[in-house]
Every structure is written in structure tokens, then in C-alpha cells.
Design goal:
single chain, 297 residues, alpha/beta, six-stranded mixed sheet, two-stranded antiparallel ribbon, 10 helices, 10 strands, 26% strand, elongated
Length: 297
């Protein structure tokens, strides 16, 4: 019944405001006899007429009044959806669903968004952050349009452009004896208490592997979800950590030290291969690539 009624609901909604079959039919671009047949068929489907003659026009019956409330609501939702589709096709008014690693949100993301919004002030963003596996799952499922994360070497169904390399550094309390060094080896941290991200974060796996390669398993005293929290725990002397370099957000009481030999991770912008993207997403993707002076494949 719903499938049969759905194409005719707009006619009923128009009658609610027009009360004239001819005018309602004109609004829909159909002949008046077709509109009359639609109304008669609705009465048959429902088992009760939806309109009755009233002077030169018609008025809704009680059954029609019941149905028109749903019709008006449904048409309003449909119009809203149509407006959203139109806006999505406008590079200045679309929505970008953008995901990124928790370890990238401190400065990199705000800088990218601020520069883009200066040129496209009406584009909307839905932002999400998480571990590498969480961001990858969002990208693969279509929950996000673009993702900023570490490069993957085994994801052939995803397009990815390497934007650059981010050095990994040791962060230690400013009062720590190692803080005075110009550089340290990962092995120099073997006897230290570590503060780091929780298991499940890609960067935690990355740093655990660095430590194992240096011949030890890190003694994890504290594990958190926020990079800023980890740095502040280091600053108050609760341990040391390995994190991406970010001198602007290192709190007082903590010091970043380069690793010897240097260690870095590749940062890539990723999207699904073969997807057609709305103009706003394409514009933001171009903005990111132009910011890092790279070209999409």
C-alpha cells in the first residue's frame, strides 16, 4: 500500500494547500484527469475516499486528513533531501567527512582547515579521529571521504599520496639526564618507564617495534589515548615516550630529543579508488595536495 501511495503523496500535499485539483495538477506537470484518477485510486487502496467535492473544488475527507499529515512531512523531508543534493553539488556548500589519526590533530589539521575555510567559508566538515585501524575502517566503509594517516603498503583499493615525513623523537622530562643530549638512540631508553598510547593505536605498535629492534620491551607505566596527555605526563616526570615531533605543543617541563639514527613515518592523504567525489570533497583534496606541493595520481 505504501509503495502504491508514495508517488501520489505530493498531489495530496498540494491539495492540502491548494484545494483545487487543476492547480495541483499544474504544479505537478500532469493532466487534471490523471490527478483525479490518482485520487480515486488512493481511495480504492485505502478503502475510503481521500477527497470529496466541495463547491468548485474538493476538500479532504477524514481519511485524507489522516494521510496528508504524513504526506506533508514526507514531502518536506524529500525537499530537504533535494536541497542537500543540490548543495552537495555546489563546491562552496557541500560537506566533507574527514578522518585523521589522533596523533595528527594538534596542529596539522587546524592549519589545513583554517586555510581552506578562508577560501570556502560555507563548506561544512564532519571530523573524526582515532587509531590507524579505526580511521582505515571509516574510509573503507564510506563513513569518511578522505583520511590523513600513515602510509599503507598493502591497500591497493585505496589511492594514497605521501605528503611528507614526520620525524619521531624521544620526549623526556626536562630534568632528565638525557634531556641535555643532542640526540639519543632508542636503546638508551631501555631502563626507563614509558608513557605512551594504548595498545590498538598504530603508533603504539610502531614504537613497540622500534624498542624491540633495539633489544628491549618498553616498561609501560602509563597508557593513554591523547598525545597531549602523554606529553604532560612526561612533563611532570612520570616517564619518557616516543612520539611524532611537535615542538609547538611540548609542555613546559618536557624536552624533545632527535633519535640516532633518525626515524620517521610517512604521512599520506587517502581516499577510495574509483569513488566519484562531490565538488567540495574534490576542492578540499586539491587544497591538501597543493599545500604539500604534491600531485594526485
Amino acid at each position: 500500500m505504501a509503495a502504491a501511495l508514495a508517488p501520489r503523496l505530493l498531489l495530496l500535499a498540494l491539495l492540502h494547500s491548494e484545494c483545487n485539483i487543476t492547480e495541483a495538477a499544474d504544479r505537478l506537470g500532469i493532466p487534471q484527469p490523471t490527478a483525479s484518477r490518482w485520487l480515486a485510486q488512493m481511495g480504492v487502496d485505502l478503502g475510503a475516499p481521500v477527497v470529496v467535492k466541495h463547491g468548485r473544488g474538493v476538500r479532504l475527507t477524514r481519511a485524507g486528513e489522516h494521510l496528508v499529515r504524513s504526506a506533508v512531512s514526507a514531502v518536506a523531508d524529500l525537499r530537504s533531501g533535494c536541497r542537500q543534493v543540490i548543495n552537495e553539488g555546489d563546491p562552496e556548500r557541500g560537506q566533507v567527512n574527514f578522518a585523521f589519526l589522533t596523533t595528527m590533530g594538534q596542529r596539522r589539521i587546524p592549519d589545513l582547515l583554517r586555510a581552506f575555510r578562508l577560501q570556502h567559508p560555507h563548506v561544512r566538515f564532519v571530523l573524526s579521529q582515532g587509531s590507524g585501524d579505526e580511521v582505515l575502517a571509516q574510509l573503507e566503509s564510506g563513513q569518511c571521504d578522505l583520511a590523513l594517516m600513515t602510509r599503507r603498503h598493502d591497500e591497493t583499493h585505496l589511492a594514497q599520496v605521501v605528503l611528507g615525513k614526520q620525524p619521531v623523537v624521544a620526549t623526556v622530562p626536562a630534568s632528565h639526564p638525557l634531556a641535555r643530549r643532542a640526540g639519543i638512540r632508542v636503546g638508551d631508553l631501555a631502563d626507563e618507564q614509558f608513557v605512551g598510547l594504548k595498545e590498538g593505536f598504530g603508533f603504539r605498535k610502531f614504537t613497540d617495534e622500534l624498542c624491540r629492534a633495539a633489544g628491549f620491551t618498553p616498561q609501560q607505566a602509563f597508557a593513554g589515548e591523547e598525545v597531549d596527555t602523554v606529553r604532560r605526563l612526561v612533563a611532570v616526570g612520570l616517564g619518557v615516550t616516543l612520539l611524532p615531533a611537535d615542538e609547538d605543543t611540548v609542555p613546559d617541563g618536557a624536552t624533545e630529543i632527535p633519535l640516532i639514527p633518525s626515524v620517521d613515518r610517512e604521512i599520506a592523504l587517502m581516499w577510495r579508488v574509483g569513488d566519484s567525489v562531490i565538488p567540495a570533497v574534490g576542492a578540499f583534496r586539491d587544497h591538501v595536495l597543493n599545500t604539500y606541493d604534491v600531485v594526485a595520481p
